[in-house]
């Protein structure tokens, strides 16, 4: 039997739409038990692809199956209309746009693909209230986000700080972990000596470090060692040249294999890493010292057991730097180019990955290069710009999620108990959902953030460096009493980037009670990250 589906399916879909079948179903289920699927929206940034289609069809299965069980199961589709996926495509198509032009074009771009995707989802047979979707760029939706954010402000959970994050130099924005993909690549790894500048071995030996990111050496402020591991001062020789180096005893064989420097005789000294804590070593090419600190994250699987620390370019580095009151130096701009802070005038304005070779040659000229090697590894890339990312210190607003974890778990437990009392509740489904929720809210070693950055702090970064997003905390000055209340009660982060304090509670109360749509809010350089939109 010939199905003739290419002809029959459009006719069937047209008949369903003309007879308003979805609304007939909703009317027939009035008064029944309610089932609501909270659908995380797709980005309005292109045609429906296989992943988007599968996601939407599977959810349609759930809604329709609940309807067939006799429940009232309305479905309200939505779209995420803000953020990097949309902004990046707009900027890629038209260069040198002003922020206002980016916002206008991004909104038009999003609205075009909302209409395109809506028809594509309908063509897949997905039932829903397609005439009244929720859009994250709808002023009413934005107002609700601002009011929700105001609750965090009211509770004192919002603060501003500098912290290293995954940074896309191609898109000039912080990235969520989900926006990072990995590619295999070869990089230059170097063994570098830091001459010891204090203590027993001053001017007699150097600390050997190993790094796969030579470009981070201008930001070096310290060296980390394991307090409990054994370290040696060992004389090495290679092709008639000799070096006296301090490194972990366990890693001497690996060091020799990688550098061709062979031990010459027995170690001159052996001691635990704790003994060298607080001594100083000279930076290999800048006029400053690096302090030696003990740390529990130092491993003995590669390198020298002495870890080069740049607090502005690594999670562990940052944590150690904060604990020891080090400066958080990050001499790199939004485009991944060295700034004057690097202290290398010839490299100012140069892309950091292009500068790797310059750094290696500088080390060689100064006599600080022990060895270099080609290192094959998996490296993070931006999913949009396809450029390698860097770990970079930037100023962000954060929300303390750790203070909400207990409340969230208690709310989930109460909800679960209520569901289990319901006659139609599925205890098996509730248990599975509870397990997933409790794992996600309790897990360690990962940040809970919209713009996620590697680390162990349970915090949520609430700001992004994107132009097309939901703006906040920068009131206009119209003749409007509510806006004047916001202005009087909140001093905000200025457009130049300097930081000022703001009195949170008056601001929060004003936003929560303000009936004015968010058109009274300017578009500042910092926007609430798109993660406020509930994604699946």
Q: What is the second-level CATH architecture of the domain at 181-388?
A: Alpha-Beta Complex
Give me the Rg, rounded: 29 Å
Strand portion, in percent?
A: 15-25%
**Morphology:** elongated
Q: What is the SS-derived class? A: alpha+beta
End-to-end separation: 40 Å
- CATH secondary-structure class of the domain at 181-388: Alpha Beta
Give the low-pLDDT segments.
Answer: 422-457, 473-536
Considering DSSP H and I runs of 4 or more, what fraction of the residues is helical?
A: 25-40%
- Count of helical stretches: 13
- Sketch the major β-sheet: 7 strands, mixed
The name of the CATH superfamily of the domain at 181-388 reads Valyl/Leucyl/Isoleucyl-tRNA synthetase, editing domain
Task: Please give a structural write-up.
This protein is an alpha+beta fold. Among the domains are: 133 residues, HUPs (Rossmann fold); 208 residues, Isoleucyl-tRNA Synthetase, domain 2 (Alpha-Beta Complex), CATH 3.90.740.10. 33% of the residues lie in helices and 21% in strands. The chain is built from 13 helices and 20 strands. The strands form five sheets. Strands 5, 6, 8, 9, 10, 11 and 15 form a seven-stranded mixed sheet that branches. It has a four-stranded antiparallel sheet with strand order 4-3-16-17, with no helix packed on it. A hairpin with a 6-residue loop joins β12 and β13. The C terminus is likely disordered.
